[in-house]
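Subject: mismatched residue count in predicted assembly?

I count 1048 residues in my input, but I want to confirm that the predicted structure covers every chain. Input:
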Amino acid sequence: MSNLLASYKKTSRLRQESRWATSLVNLWLIAFALISIIPMIWLLLAPTKSDADLTNKNPLMFGRLGGYIDAWKNLQFFDDGVVFQWALNSIWYTAAIVVIATISASLAGFVLTASNIRFKKVFLISTLIMMLVPPMALVVPVFVLMDQLSLMDNPMSVILVASLYPFGTFLAYIYYSTTIPKELYESARLDGCNDFRLYSRIALPLSWPLISLLSFFAFIGNWANYFLPYILLPSSENYTLPIGLGFLFYSTPAINPGVGATSVPVYKPEIALAGVLIALPIMIVFLVSQKRLVRGMLSGSIKE
Amino acid sequence: MAKAKKASRQRTSAAMYLMLAPYVFLLIMFGIVPVLMAIHEVPTPSRVNADGGWDAFKIVSQDFRFLPALQHVLQFMAVFVPLTLIFVIGMALMLDIKHSKWKKYLRLAYIVPASISGGVAVLVWYVILQPTLSPIKTPLSWFGITTSDQIWQTKNLYWIFALMAFFAVAGNWILIQYGSLQSISYEILEAARMDGCSALQLALRIKLPLIKKYIIYMGVLIFAGGLQLFVEPQLLNTGVYAGIAEAWSPDQLAFELAFTNGDFGGASALSIMLLIPALIGALIVIFKTDMFDEAEVSGKQKVQE
Amino acid sequence: MGDTLKKKYSLIAVAGALAVAGATLTAMPAQAATPSITIWVDAPRLPGAKLYAKIMKGKVDVKVELHAQGDLVQKVALFNRVKKGWPDVVFGPPNDVSVLKDANNALALDKYAPASFWKDMEGGNQWCKGSDGMYYCVKNDLAQTVLWVNTKLMKDFGYTVPKTMTDFAKIGADIAANHPGYSLGALGAQGMYANYLWPSQCPANQATSSTAVRIAPTDSKCTRATALVQPMIDSGVLSTSAPWDADFVKDYGQANKVVMVIGPSWFGEFVIKPAASWAVPAGQITAVEMPMWPGEKVNYSGEWGGGIYTVSPHSKYPKEALAFAIFMVSDKRNVTDVVNPDGSKGAPTFPASAKGNAFWKAKISADKWYSANPYPAMLAQSTKIFSGEKPVSYDTNGAMEGTYSNELKKTKNAQSALVAFSTYVTNLAKQLGYKVKTN
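Triage response: the counts match. Full output below for your records.
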C-alpha cells in the first residue's frame, strides 16, 4: 500500500516537473496548426481581392465578397464558360468512379475473406503490388490499350481505369477479416443463406464504416487526379477541374503573362477561385469524416 | 482444421466468383494487361534504338537525363521520407501526451493542407514562396529571401517538392498514428507510469514499439507515394517557371520520352524500372509487417503447411 | 439492405448509360457534305478563331479548341500513336515546325494557297521555309526585338537613346552609379537569348541542315554578349527574373523604374501596357531601333516568340485548314477588328503578312498610349532578324527558359549559364542524331 502511494507521489512529481515541457509542446502543437491553415486561408481569401491587391496589400487581408462573383464571371470568359463544364465533368466522373470502385472493392474484400476461392494469395499479392505501382508506369500502355478499345477521349476510359481500386480492396479485406468473425458466416450458411445473401445480409450491414471509408478515399484520390484524364481526355470539353486548372496555368496570363495579358481576364483571383473549387470539396469531406477516417484505417487490427 | 477447410472450399460457389468478378476484371484489364503491354512495348524501334530490342533498358539508363532525374528523386526522398516519418510520429506522440478537448480542433487544422494537392499545391506554393505575394514574407525576409529567383531555382526544387508533399500527407498520417496510439491499452501505459517512466521514456520505450508495424506501413506508403512525383514538377515546368523542372523526375522523363521523343519503347523500359521500387515495397509490407498475415490467420497457416 | 444494394447497382447502370450516351455523342461522324476542320489555338488567338468559325458557318464546319502552346508536341505524339485525332490546323511556338515535321505532322503548304498569298508572306515567312524550299508553316507574327524606351525617364535622367550596345552598357553603368533601383530589364525566360545572344549572332541554335547544328558558347559573338551584360547583372540593373515574375513586375514594372528594355515587338502591348502587368502610364513608352553591336554593319534583332500555323498532313481538308491561317494573318476582321474579352480590339502582335501588317500599322500608329509611334522601329527591325538561328528538332526554347535561366539565377554568371545551356542542348541534339559542332 505504502509502496503504491510512493509511486503515485513519484509520478505526480514527475508530471509537475514536466509542466513547462508540456506547455512548450502545446505551444508547438498550436503553432503547427496555424502553419497548417495559412495556405488555405490565403486561397480562400484570394478571390475576394483584385490582382493588384494580391501583390500590394497584406496577403491575409479580406477583400470583398463580391470578388468571388467577379472572379466567377471572369472565369466564364474563358472559352465560353467551359469552366462550368469542367466542374460538371469532375462531379460525374468522380461520382461514377466512387460508385464502381467502392462496390467492386467491397465485394472483392468480402469474397477474399469469406471464401476459399482459388488463387486467393495471387489476388492478394497482386493487389498489394498494384497499390504501390506508380500510375505513371502504366500510362503509356493504358493509353495504347484505350486506343485499341476505342475509348480515347471518352470519359469511360478514365472512369474504368480509375475504378481499379487495389487500396480499397486491401482495406476491405482487412476490415472484413478482422471485424466479422468467420463463425457468423458459418452459422448463416447453416441457416440456408446463399453467398449473395451472406454479403447483403451479414457483411454489408456490418460494414457501413468501411463503405464510407472506401468512398472517402476513392473521392479524394480521384477528385484531384491529374494524370489519367490529362493523357486520356485530350479535348478541353472533357477536362476535369484539375486539368482545367493546369490549363489555366499555361494558357492565361494569371501566372505567366507571356501568354498575353489582354486576351483573357483570368488573373490570380480567378485562378485561385478555380483552386478553391478543387480544394474546398476535399477539405469539407476531410473535416466531416476525419474521425471515421482514423477509425476505419485502424479498424483492421486494432481492437477498440 | 484441414477438414474444415476442405468443407469450406467445397462451398465456394459461383456466386463468390461473380462477386469477385468486377474487381478481378478491372485488375486484369487495367493492372496486369498494361504491365504486360509495357514489357511487350520495350523492344519497339525508335530513333535512339533504331534496331529495336531489349537494349532499350541500357539506352534509357544512359540517357543524359536519367541519372540527374534519379538523383533528384533520391534527394527529394531523402528529405521527404525522414522528415515526414519523424515529424508525424513526433506530432502523434505529442498529441497523445495529455488529452484535452481543444486538441480536437488542432487535429482538424492539421488535415487542412491535405486538401491542397496537385495543381492547387503548385499555385499555393508558388504564392507562398514568392516574396512579393507571400503570406509569410516576413519570415522569408529573416532568411534574407526577398526575390523569387533566390528560391525558384532547379537546385532548390527537391526541398520545395518535399515541403509540398509533406504538407499534403502529414496531417492525415498524424491522425492515423494518433489513432494507433489511442489503441494502446490503458493498463500498459499506467503500469509503465507506475514504474516511473517519464513522458519521453513512455513515448520511446513503450508507445513506439507498440505501433511499429503502422510506422513501417506508413513508411512504405509514403515512400511509394513519393516516387510518383509527376504533377507538381510538370505543372511548375509548363505553367509557372518554364523549363525549371524539365525531365526533373523519372516519371517526367518517361512521359517526355514517350510523348515528346515518341520513344515508347524507352518510356516503357523506364516505366518497368519504376515498378521495381513498388515490388520491393510490396515485399517489405508482406514480410516485415504482419499487416498481411494477421488479417488472414488461416492464409498464413496455409503457407506454413 | 438488398434494396440499397440494388440502388447502388442501378447507380452503376445509370453511370454506364451516361457513359455510353457520351460515347455515341463524341463518336458521331461528321456530315460529309460540308468540309469540317478542327482548329487548335492558344488564348490570344481564340477571339479570331471563333470569329472565323462564325463567318464560315454553312460553308465549313469549324471546330475551335483552345490549346496551350506548350503541350502541342506531346499531344501530336499521342495522336500519331493512336493514328487519329490530329487537329487540322494548329497554332504553336515557332520551333515546333521542325519538331512537327519530324513527327510527320507538318504539311508542305505551297500548293494549297494562291501565289498571291505566298507573295504577301514572302518577307515574313522565311522561318517556315524548309531546306527543300517549301513552306511548312505560316508565320502568324514577327517577334523581332526592338529597344523599348521610357521617354520620360530618359529625359529625367538626361540620357540619349543609345545607338550602340556599348552606349547601352554605359547607360547601364550610369544607372547603377547614379540611379540605383532603376532597371534595364530582365534576362529570365528567353530574355538573354532573344534580346542579347541572338542579335549578337551567338551560335546557340545554328542549324546548318536538318541533322547538323552549331552550338558554340565560347564563340566571340557569344562572349561579347555575356561580357556586356555581366556588370549589369552584378549591379542589379539587369534582373535574372523573367519580366513577368511577380517581384520584377512589382519592384520595377509597376514602380515604373524600367528606363529601357530590349524586347520583342509584342512587349508593349503584352507586358508594358496592360494594367495587370507593368501598367506604365500613357505617354511614356515608345520603341526605337536596336543598338548596334561593336564592329557590325547591321543592327540585327533576335526573335522572341512569333507563333506559327501548321497544317496536319492527316487533314482531309488542307485547303480549308490553311484558309484559316490566311484569315488570321491577313484579314482585317481579325488583325484589327476582332473584339477581345478585355474590350481591346485586334491581334496584339506584329502580323507577318504584308497585307495584315498594313492594317495593324494603322491601328498601332494611332494608339495614343505610346509617346511616339513605335511602328517605324518595328518595321525597320522586322527585316533584320538574324537568320543564323533556325528551327531545330528539340525543345531549345524550353532549355533556354529552363537550363539557362536557372543557371543564371544560381551563378549570376551569364557565360557559365550559357555553357550549361549548351551542354544540355548538345545532349538533346545528339540524342536526336544531330551532328553538333561546338566551336
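Chain A has 15 helices and no strands. Marking this ticket as 'not a bug'.
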